[in-house]
Automatic annotation (TrEMBL), chain A:
Transmembrane segments: none annotated. One of its GO terms (cellular component) is nucleus. Residues 46-313 form the MMS19 N-terminal domain. The lineage of its organism: Eukaryota, Viridiplantae, Streptophyta, Embryophyta, Tracheophyta. It is found in: Nucleus. This is MMS19 nucleotide excision repair protein.
């Protein structure tokens, strides 16, 4: 009983449409659920609804019927017996005539038709009855959009699911459809409507049957829709895309060959339309229709299509790119154009389908014949007129498609056109054998046009060979016999002499031709091995000799790269062998040969490009490179050139080859060996002078070492670190094992240059290690690093930072007795006592009693009197801090505390002026420098480092660490700045905060824009004083301009508009950096968009300042000034000439 | 008075490719002076719209880069423009636009001289005199209709 009342409530809430739509939907769902759970039968529901279904009030009746229909959609998975379905069909069918309640009837019918056979389907006769009723009683045009859409869907479903039973309606059905689609314009209705055409065509396929007699009428209705074009952009969620609708119409067009007499003429006509989309659509439709209609029906149109295709390509084909890229291209490279692509694919379709017809068309074509007959006159690219050049390009593209599409068409064009061209150039086919031995052609017989077309033909033919496994017979024979001739002609284009310097396109043609000849595939290829080898020889001779002709040289190198990449998978083939012996080995020889004039940087370019062709080649190149590096390293002291050479080789290794290896994988063994060898070299240099004393070379070696180690796996890294540790401990004066026990005297750490080199190299290994790699004697190393850090060796500080970044924390549960945890390491770093026995002597010891003993942080705070020491300590601390910050460790708070204490400790005010004035000045300078270093330490903390602590070197990085750090530091800084009373500490605090702000993601800054803006402006005005701060200044300006342009920041900006403008006006003539002035003016432009009430009072001031910028020394600033002036001048309409 | 356009069917020329200047990014270049030159002046005025057609003066070849003479040392610039038809009554408006645009874009030290190309206009001398008469230019800019027209023509050149 309770269910009945519940049901009545649901029904009421739906029918009396007073409730909200979500409410109504939930009522429907509830009723559906009742039926699904068998709490309610459909009969009971109908009985309950009885009053509504038969009510005379049209609103209530229509709601009632709609409710029943909607309930049906919700129980489409519930099986219904055939009797129920039959009576439902009967009911809804009758209601179709009731136009006031038609929505419900349509939804109901549609739902019934859609039912699957396993849950009870509508019978054929019922379906037919619905269709009949539907056609007779519905007046489509008078219905609303959604109802019309339902109508089309209903018809579509009927044809889809009950085609056989509906088919007997014959004429009525087609008439009904025609009446429905007439004047329909809504894309949503057209989608199913077009689909109905397809179904109708499928239903009556007989060429002389029913549909044939109506084809004209149906097509007349469809024709106006082509090409699909939306005049209004659709809004709303259920919109149909133009492309989808166009595709559906295309399917309707191509649905039956019966449309052919109407469709093709229409498409041909529209092809000449000026509307871009019409052209593309016509080409697409033509392609699909011709494949659907079949060769026979299309045959009569081929001529017409051919000529309009030629026209279209002629109009839309752009100038080709005569340049080589590393990305492979076949044939000549043209800029992508949709129309051309579609046109060419239509052509391809036709060639496949109506092959013989097309072949005879092209052979007899007057444009083609014109080009071929006058080919002799196209000697050089520049000599061809623009019109004919265009024709040449079009014919080239068409020939390319012919050659690539099918074997018969390929043979045909080779046989007739290529030979004819050669004839018209005066090389008859019979002469070819003679030409073979004729050697290089005289330069006047070089012919651009001929070679251009040859390339397109060859490229097409090559693709055909790749795609189809068969060998095309005739064209191979021709190619085989003329390959030497072609080789010689391409070479002769490249022949450069004093009186003849070919323009770029000719060079391109020559190189490209040789490349395509060489790239003919492997063993099935018709080019004899000797020709292939000749090509490689030619290329290598260009590489070695013609390096001063940049374009030729670069193209040749790229070609060699392409050829080499081709053999990547066929390393055992005959041609790959020749490539190795002619190119790879020659390249290796380049390294050792000093007598050739090819500049060394170009040699390296060749080396890396050839190496990148395949892993195998790369390994070989790497070996050669390694040999050369070590040979040069040992020569460094005797020979200045080998110093440069070694640096360049190392750079090439770390910047070009290593990234490639990293991407392609697999050369780790080599990298490992290489790193170990460098260490051997470093160790061996003990007895004589080390090559690493030289700064540039040391940097290059460190870089190579860092990148190599970074690429390696943990196992290899373990090997390298052991090796390097053994060198470090045995070959230097550092006493790693004693360092923990003995209080060491300063003398022992007076590092020799050689020791420093090895230490730096070791630090670069540490920087690049993975977190899990085991470091031997880590305590000793930590001590060593702390001491050397105080000597000002920055990479050591970076290595220390990397170590604390990667060590396993105790909290992570890795309790291995021998592994040092992060906490222990931090204890060592921050609690190891450094002893100062006298003036500058420093010692390190644990727990020894010394009145001068202090720890690292004390040094940072300036407890010693040595300011340089303090600076070094602060710098070191910043890198350690960075390591901790990245992993989100708590200790960073202590570090920033020390740094900020450094900033605010103004010693000068407390130091009594007892010593001499000069001395005090010196002292002052040093102190300031150390504190400035502390301010800049914040830059180290926040910015992304290139040299260490990044993804490449496996740093542990916590997401959003910058944001976190900024939010924790901001209140501290704001408070300190507002409290600071001495000018120097205020300067340093602002400077430090400026450093932090300029690298923080803008989005965080925007959140606190209000509080930050005044500090930001303080920073800006303060930083103008020192030239060296110009980069920080620029960074801050970028932050400000971010605030001005983002919505979030604008509120804060509006309030402070006048102080911002005043600050910016002072900056517009900042003479030390153009970018500062430029972005300052841009900020002013952005400010002019603010509400006029706020900014109007400042207008005159801004305009005065800007008019000075019109006379700036830099053009970019002047241009910005003109814009800014206009923006500010037009705030108020003014008749004045100046403003 | 004929109410139609003065030149109904002007010839449209192609725009010249914007030359990319080699940008100065070297730190050593920070203090070197880049003088105002022909191309810079031309860039200021090339996009001014013709008063009666939706084309720029450059597209109509009313002005060309060669027609700009500039001497940065002497703070002097002269622009010679060629009206599309000899009897063009828009010549004065075009001249006015050029003058206003240059006054707004160049530093105050500059003297701007605008003139019609010799032989290109029926009342050449009168137009030249009108365009270079300070008083008359100032007076013209007091006229709200003229100022609106000038502003409309200048709008695209500020983008």
């Amino acid at each position: 009983m309770a269910e009945t009342t519940q049901l009545t409530r649901h029904i009421d809430s739906y029918i009396h449409s007073s409730s909200t739509s979500t409410h109504q939907v939930s009522s429907l769902d509830a009723i559906g659920l009742l039926i699904k759970t068998n709490a309610l039968t459909l009969e009971a529901l109908v009985r309950e609804l009885d009053v509504y279904l038969t009510s005379t009030d049209t609103v209530i009746r229509s709601r009632g019927i709609l409710l029943l229909a909607e309930v049906l959609t919700r129980i489409n998975s519930i099986s219904l017996d055939s009797k129920t379905i039959h009576s439902l069909v009967g009911f809804f069918k009758e209601r179709l005539a009731d136009w006031k309640a038609v929505r419900g009837a349509l939804v109901g019918c549609l739902e019934l038709i859609r039912r699957k056979s396993d849950v009870g389907m509508v019978t054929g006769s019922d379906a037919k009855a619905i269709a009949q009723y539907f056609i007779q009683h519905l007046h489509f045009q008078s219905l609303g959009l959604y109802d019309r859409k339902l109508c089309f869907e209903l018809l579509d479903c009927l044809l889809e699911h009950h085609a056989d039973s509906v088919a007997s309606l014959e004429e009525d059905l087609i008439f009904g459809f025609c009446a429905a689609i007439d004047a329909e314009r809504d894309p949503e209705c057209l989608m199913p409507a077009f689909h109905i055409v397809e179904s109708l065509a499928r239903l009556y396929p007989d060429p002389s049957g029913l549909f044939a007699s109506f084809a004209r009428d149906v097509f007349d209705l469809l024709e106006p829709y082509f090409p699909i074009q939306f005049t209004h952009t659709t809004s709303g969620d259920a919109h149909v895309h133009r492309d989808d609708l166009s595709r559906t119409l295309m399917n309707a067009f191509s649905s039956t060959p019966l449309f052919e007499p109407f469709v093709i003429p229409l498409l041909l006509q529209k092809l000449s339309s000026s509307l871009h989309s019409a052209k593309i659509d016509s080409l697409q439709y033509l392609r699909v229709c011709s494949s659907k209609y079949g060769a026979e029906r299309i045959a009569k149109y081929v001529g017409a299509i051919w000529s309009s295709l030629k026209d279209t390509i002629n109009t839309y084909l752009m100038e080709p790119n005569f340049s080589f890229t590393l990305a492979p291209t076949d044939g000549i490279d043209f800029p992508k154009n949709e129309v051309v692509i579609e046109a060419l694919s239509l052509l391809q379709q036709l060639i496949v389908q109506n092959s013989s017809q097309l072949v005879s068309l092209i052979i007899d074509d007057k444009d083609v014949n014109f080009i071929i007959n006058s080919i002799a006159s196209y000697e050089m690219y520049d000599a061809v007129s623009v019109q004919e050049k265009k024709k040449l390009h079009v014919i080239g593209r068409i020939l390319y498609i012919f050659a690539k599409t099918s074997i018969p068409s390929c043979n045909a064009v080779f046989q007739s056109l290529l030979l004819r061209m050669m004839d018209s150039l005066g090389f008859s086919v019979s002469n070819i054998d003679g030409l073979k031995n004729a050697g290089i052609l005289a330069s006047q017989s070089v012919n651009f046009g001929f070679l251009y077309l040859c390339i397109e033909l060859l490229a097409g033919c090559r693709e055909l060979v790749i795609l189809s496994e068969e060998k095309p017979g005739t064209c191979f024979t021709i190619l085989h016999s003329s390959s030497d001739f072609l080789f010689n002609s391409f070479c002769s284009v490249l022949a450069v002499s004093a009186d003849r310097f070919p323009p770029d396109p000719d060079i391109y043609i020559g190189v490209k031709g040789l490349q395509i000849l060489a790239m003919f595939n492997l063993d099935v290829f018709p080019i004899p091995k000797s020709t292939f080898e000749n090509i490689l020889k030619k290329f290598m001779s260009i590489i070695i000799e013609d390096f001063n002709k940049t374009i030729l040289w670069n193209s040749t190198l790229k070609s060699l790269f392409h050829i080499g990449s081709l053999f990547q998978n066929f390393s055992e083939s005959e041609k790959a062998m020749s490539y190795r012996s002619f190119v790879l080995d020659k390249t290796m020889e380049l390294l050792s040969l000093d007598d050739i004039s090819l500049p060394f940087s170009l040699k390296l370019e060749v080396l890396s490009d050839i190496g990148m062709t395949s892993m195998k080649n790369m390994l070989k190149i790497l070996q050669g490179l390694e040999g050369a590096i070590f040979a040069n390293l040992s020569e460094v002291h005797r020979n200045l050139t080998s110093y440069d050479t070694a640096v360049q080789l190392l750079e090439c290794y770390s910047c070009k080859l290593l990234p490639w290896i990293l991407e392609n994988g697999g050369a780790e063994e080599f990298i490992l060996q290489f790193s170990v060898d460098i260490w051997n070299q470093a160790g061996n240099c003990m007895d004589f002078n080390s090559p690493f004393e030289e700064k540039g070379l040391l940097d290059a070696t460190m870089k190579a070492m860092k990148f190599s180690v970074g690429c390696c796996s943990e196992e290899s890294q373990n090997v390298i670190i052991l090796k390097s540790y053994s060198i470090l401990s045995s070959r230097t004066n550092f006493q790693l094992n004693d360092v923990q026990r003995l209080p060491l005297t300063f003398e022992k750490y007076d590092i020799s240059l050689r020791d420093e080199g090895i230490l730096l190299l070791f630090a670069s290994v540490i920087i690049a290690l993975r977190p899990k790699t085991h470091v031997p004697n880590i305590r000793g190393i930590l001590h060593l690093f702390i001491i050397t850090l105080l000597k000002g060796v920055v990479p050591v500080a970076q290595a220390l930072g990397s170590m604390v970044n990667k060590l396993i924390s105790k909290s992570n549960g890795a309790e291995k007795s021998d592994e040092l945890t992060l906490e222990e390491a931090l204890h060592i770093i921050f609690n190891t006592k450094i002893c100062f026995s006298s003036d500058n002597m420093l010692q390190i010891c644990d727990g020894s009693i010394n009145r001068n003993e202090i720890v690292l942080t004390d040094v940072c705070l300036g407890m010693t009197n040595d300011r340089l020491l303090q600076t070094n300590a602060v710098c070191g601390l910043s890198w350690i801090g960075k390591g901790l910050l990245l992993r989100g460790h708590e200790k960073i708070k202590d570090i920033t505390k020390i740094l900020t204490e450094c900033l605010i400790s103004d010693r000068n005010s407390s130091l009594p002026l007892i010593e001499g004035l000069d001395e005090n000045n010196e002292e002052h300078k040093g102190d300031h420098l150390a504190r400035k270093c502390a301010a800049d330490a914040f830059h180290v903390l926040m910015s992304d480092a290139e040299d260490c602590l990044n993804r490449k070197f496996h740093a542990t990085m916590r997401p959003l660490y910058k944001q976190r750090f900024f939010s924790s530091m901001m209140p501290i800084f704001l408070q300190l700045i507002s409290r600071s009373d001495s000018s120097s500490s205020r300067y340093l605090l602002l400077r430090a905060f400026a450093r932090v702000m300029s690298v923080t993601p803008l989005i965080v800054i925007l959140n606190d824009a209000k509080e930050l803006i005044s500090v930001l402006l303080d920073c800006l005005s303060m930083l103008t004083e020192d030239i060296q701060d110009k980069d920080i200044l620029y960074g801050l300006l970028l932050v400000l301009s971010g605030m001005l342009t983002e919505k979030n920041g604008q509120e804060a900006v509006i309030e402070n508009a006048h102080i911002i403008i005043n600050c910016l006006i002072k900056l517009v003539d900042y003479s030390h950096k153009t970018l500062v002035r430029e972005s300052c003016i841009q900020c002013l432009v952005a400010l002019s968009k603010l509400p006029h009430v706020r900014i109007y009072p400042l207008r005159t001031q801004v305009l005065e300042a800007i008019s000075k910028c019109l006379d700036d020394t830099k053009r970019s600033v002047r241009n910005e000034a003109v814009k800014c002036r206009q923006a500010w001048a037009s705030i108020a309409s003014s008749r004045s000439l100046r403003f | 008075m004929v109410s139609g356009l003065i030149n109904e069917n002007p010839v449209i020329y192609e725009r010249k490719q914007r030359q990319q200047r080699s940008t100065q990014s070297l730190p050593a270049d920070e203090y070197t002076v880049e003088p105002i030159d022909q191309q810079e002046i031309f860039d200021h005025i090339r996009d001014i719209k013709d008063p009666e057609h939706p084309y720029s003066l450059e597209e109509l070849k009313v002005i060309t880069e060669e027609a700009v003479e500039v001497d940065d040392q002497k703070s002097y610039v002269r622009v010679t423009f060629t009206p599309t038809v000899e009897h063009c009554s828009m010549a004065t408006i075009i001249g006015l636009c050029l003058r206003v645009k240059l006054l707004r874009s160049l530093p105050p030290r500059y003297k701007v001289d605008i003139r019609v190309a010799p032989g290109s206009h029926a009342t050449e001398a009168a137009v030249n005199k009108q365009l270079n008469d300070k008083e008359r230019v100032a007076a013209a800019l007091e006229n709200p209709n003229l100022v609106d027209m000038v502003d409309e023509c200048l709008a695209p050149s500020f983008d």
